[in-house]
Amino acid sequence: MVHQPDHDDTEKLSARIPVYRPKLPSVEKLIPYLREIDKNRWYSNRGMFVQAMELRIATMLGTGCGVVVTASGWAALKAAIFAAAGPATTQRPLALMPSYTFAATAAAAESCGYKPYLLDIEEENWMISPQTLINHQALSRTGVVIPVAAYGRGVAQEGWRQFRETTAVPVVIDAAAAFEAIVDDPSSLIGAVPVVVSFQATKTLSTAEGGAVIWNDADGRMAVAGSINFGFLGTRESKSPSLNGKMSEFHAAVGHASLDAWDETVVAWRTTCGAYSGFAETAGLADQLILNPTIASCYALFHANSDAEANNVTKALAENGIEHRYWYGNGLHTHQQFAAAPRDPLPRTAHIAHRLIGLPTAVDLSREAMKRIVVAICQGRCEG
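Below the sequence we write its predicted structure tokens.
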């Protein structure tokens, strides 16, 4: 017998606040692009919209950079690893990366033949540091290092460029959610080290699903282009390790419509983050609610002062129909797939992972929802 929810159940479900609600361009904004695709009859394999999107983003960023767009952020990361480091070898089987990241980072490295080696993060920015890795005991067996832009923070090029020159170990920056930061400071965040971004629906700039490699190295970009096209580059002969990672014209059309509205989207996100911050400040939570510009606009984080406070706050959120998310879980070392991976001691990862709680956000998150979220947090803190 099917359970029929009573009035209270229905009211609670209708009032549920999801942890994230993407908002992509409307059908009306896409129609001109779709009509052009119909006319061109060029649907994939580096179509006109894909090429135009690459040029458009490169022009936005300047600084001599080039862009190769891909079918997903994961495809971009895998292609960048192939282009910058090649597949793993028996002499250099390791890919060094933070344990505190999304599983896609390690999955991409594994698909290139590497064994993830998990590192601890810096307490102040939740990222790994080139300075602390320069004499790491695993470097002689490392084929690639993958720094991660935690929650869309910018990863400075210069330190990793120097690291690569000093150690001769290739570096690929996984900057999945950091497109905003890159647009704001391209001269510091793009350059000789390849940077990978995601255009998935949850990101500030989206093609629904997609990604890109941003890199000032023309030969490196050519290698990326070959890597996402079965190793083909100007011929029908496969000449390199590869995947099928090409972006379709339909996804590029969504990207162009998103770029058309980029300035308005940035203003809308800044307005939302500012209002969210105002509610937090009024409630005395200003130092615990983390928003743009510290992180990407598409995240809102509550930084609990203790594991107990985190438990109480997440309980209060759930009781009030408010979703939360541990975006990076408790670290890759707690995943079944990566539990046996070699790793350093991870005290800072263990300290922060359970305390950074992903709160609901959206470009059009209502003020009423913000208020409910902040009130629930306060309720959880009081119960502690």
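The chain has two domains: 27-260, 261-324+359-383.
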